[in-house]
Amino acid sequence: MPENWSSSRLDLHLDLAGEGGHRARLEAALREAIRAGRLTAGTPLPSTRGLAQELGLSRGTVSAAYDQLAEQGYVTTRPGAATRVADVSHARRPEPPQDIPPNGHVRHDLRPGRPDVSAFPARGWLAATRRVLDRARPEAFGPGDPQGRIELRTALTDYLGRTRGVLTTPDRIVITSGYYQTVQLLCRVLLAEGRDVAALEDPGHDFYRDTVRRAGFTTYGLPVDAHGADTGTLTARTYAVFLTPSHHYPTGVPLHPSRRQAVCAWARATGGLIVEDDYDGEFRYDRRPVGALQSLAPDQVVYCGTTSKTLGPALRLAWTVLPPDLVTPMVRAKEADDLYTETLGQMVLADFIATHAYDRHIRAARLRYRRRRELLIDRLSAFPAVTAHGVPAGLHTLVTLPPEGPAEAALLTTCADRGLALRGLTELHHDPTDRPGGLLIGFAAPSERAYPAALDALCAVFAGSSTRPGTRCPGLQRL
Ligand SMILES: Cc1ncc(COP(=O)(O)O)c(C=O)c1O
User: Fold this and answer.
1) 3-class SS of residue 421
2) C or N terminus of the chain, fewer CB within 10 Å?
3) Ligand 1 atom at minimal distance to the Cα of residue 114
4) How far is CA 89 from CA 44, 65, 85, 93, in A?
C-alpha cells in the first residue's frame, strides 16, 4: 500500500504499515493522525471513492474504516455531506495522575500507589547486579528477547505460583516495561481481532481508563460496591474486562468469591477476556493474600504484575501471564513497540527473585506498611465524619466524605496549599455527577521518618474542616 496520502484537499502522511487487514490499518492510521492533531476538528475527509482510488483499496474497505471511526467518535457523518474530523481534544494522551499539589512542592507525600522508595533495597540490588555481571555470558550484552529474558520468566513462574497461585509456565509470560505498556500492547492485540468493547471498574484508575479508550475501545463502567465490581452488569458484546480483583483501586475491597466465579463463567460463555491488574496483591496485612483470579480460568485471564509497588516505579519492569493464543501476538506487539525491555535489569530481578531477596524485601515492607495503615486508621478515628474503606491491604486507603461536607475540592485545595500531596476520588468516576467525594491517602510513599509529620499534616487539614466528632461505621454503598 502506498504510504503517502495526497489529495486535492489535503496532503497527509499516513503510516499504513503494521499488523491487521487493510481496514484496520487505515482506521488506525487515521485515528493516530486525528489524535496527534495532524487532522484537526472540522477537516473534511476525502470521499470514500477518492481515497480508495488513491490508496488502491476497495471503496468498501475505506467506508468500513470511516464507519468504525464514526462509532468511536473520531469523525462525524451526515447524509449527503463530507465525513469530517470530530473534536477529540478529550481523547488526547492522558495526563499523569493529578496528585501533585499545583505549586509542585511536595512537603508531605501521601500519594496513593507509591511505595517507600527510600527503602529501595540498594545493597541487595547491587549484590545481585555483581553476581549477574560476574556470570553473564557475552550474549547477555547483545540484543534481547522481545518476550523477556528466560531467567526472569523462569523465576517468575516459580514466584507467582508460590505467592499468588498463578498457573503458568515461562513460555506464557511476556516481560514489559510496566503495566502501562502492558495495557497499550494488549489493547492493540485485542482490537486487531475486531472486537472493541471493554468494561472497566467505576470508580477506577482514570489513567488506565483513558489509555484503553485512547487505544480505540468503546468503554463502559462496572459499578463497584462492597463486593467489588458488579460483574453481573457485563454484556455479551464486551471483549475485555479490566479488574483489580485482589484490592480494588480505589475502594480497597477484594472481589467477592461469587463474583470471581461469575466473571470467569461470563468469560467462558462469551469468549471474553479478563485483564487482572494485580498491582499490589503482595500487600495484605490481616491474612495471607487472596490468590490471583487467574488460577480459576488461566485460559480466560491475562494476569498482570509489576515491580512498581514492591521495588519502585523507576525500574519499569512488569510481567504478563497470557492465555496461550495471545502469547505470540503480544510478543510481536512488544517487538513492534520497543523491541524488548532493557535486559540487564531483567537479569538482576531474576537473581533477586531466585535468591529470595525479593521475598525478604516484600516481607519487611509488609510489616512497615501494616503499622502505617494501623496508625492512619487510628488517627482517622478522631474524625468519624470521614469513612475509611477497604480491607487492610495495599498502599492506600480511601476515605469518603459526608454529603454535608467538607467538600473534596475544598480539602484538596487546603492540602495543596500546605504541600500535602494526595488524590481526590471524584476524577476516578466515569461520570462524577452526584457521587460522594473522597480522598485517597497513600500511607506507603513517605520514608519512615517523614510519615508521622505527614499524618499530622493530614489530621490538621481534617481538624480545620467541619469533620465533627460523632460515631460512624465504615461501610461501602455503591460509590
Ligand atoms: C491500579 C494500578 N495498576 C498498575 C499500576 C502499575 O503501573 P506501572 O507498572 O506502569 O508502573 C499502578 C501504578 O500506579 C496502578 O495504580
Assistant:
1) strand
2) N
3) 14
4) 17, 21, 11, 9
Distances (CA, A) of 153 to 46, 318, 346, 435: 48, 11, 9, 42
Q: Which three cell numbers stand for residue 158?
A: 516459580
DSSP state of 393: B
Asked whether the predicted pLDDT for residue 468 surpasses 60, the reply is no
Dig out the grid coordinates for 354 from the structure: 531466585
Tell me if 119 sits within 8 A of 447, measured CB to CB: yes
- The alpha carbon of 282 and the centre of ligand 1 are apart by a number of angstroms equal to 14
Return the ligand 1 atom nearest residue 204 CA: 1
Contact 303, 281 (CB under 8 A): no
For ligand 1, the distance from its centroid to the CA atom of residue 228, given in whole angstroms, is: 19
- % of the chain beyond a pLDDT of 90: 71
pLDDT in tens, 130-163: 999 999 999 999 999 999 999 999 999 999 999 9
C-beta 97 within 6 A of ligand 1: no
User: Residue 93: helix, strand or coil by DSSP?
Assistant: coil
Domains of the chain with bracketed CATH: 4-91 (1.10.10.10), 108-118+359-464 (3.90.1150.10), 120-357 (3.40.640.10)
How many Å lie between the centroid of ligand 1 and the Cα of residue 36?
25
Whole-number Å distance between alpha carbons of 76 and 300: 36
Is the CB–ligand 1 distance for residue 179 below 6 Å?
yes
Using the atom order of ligand 1, give the atom closest to the CA of residue 277: 3
Q: DSSP letter string over 174-212?
A: EEESSHHHHHHHHHHHHHTTT--EEEEEES--HHHHHHH
Is the pLDDT score of 407 beyond 50? yes
* pLDDT tops 60 at residue 473: no
Contact indicator for 448, 368 with CB cutoff of 8 Å: yes
Contact partners, residue 365, CB within 8 Å, separation at least 6: 115, 116, 119, 283, 310, 444
**How many whole angstroms separate alpha carbon 298 and alpha carbon 300?**
6
Residue 23 — very low, low, confident or very high, per pLDDT cuts 50/70/90?
Answer: confident
Give 324-382 pLDDT, tens digit per residue. 999 999 999 999 999 999 999 999 999 999 999 999 999 999 999 999 999 999 999 99
Residue 13 half-sphere exposure toward CB, CA atoms < 13 A: 3
180 C-beta closer than 6 A to ligand 1: yes
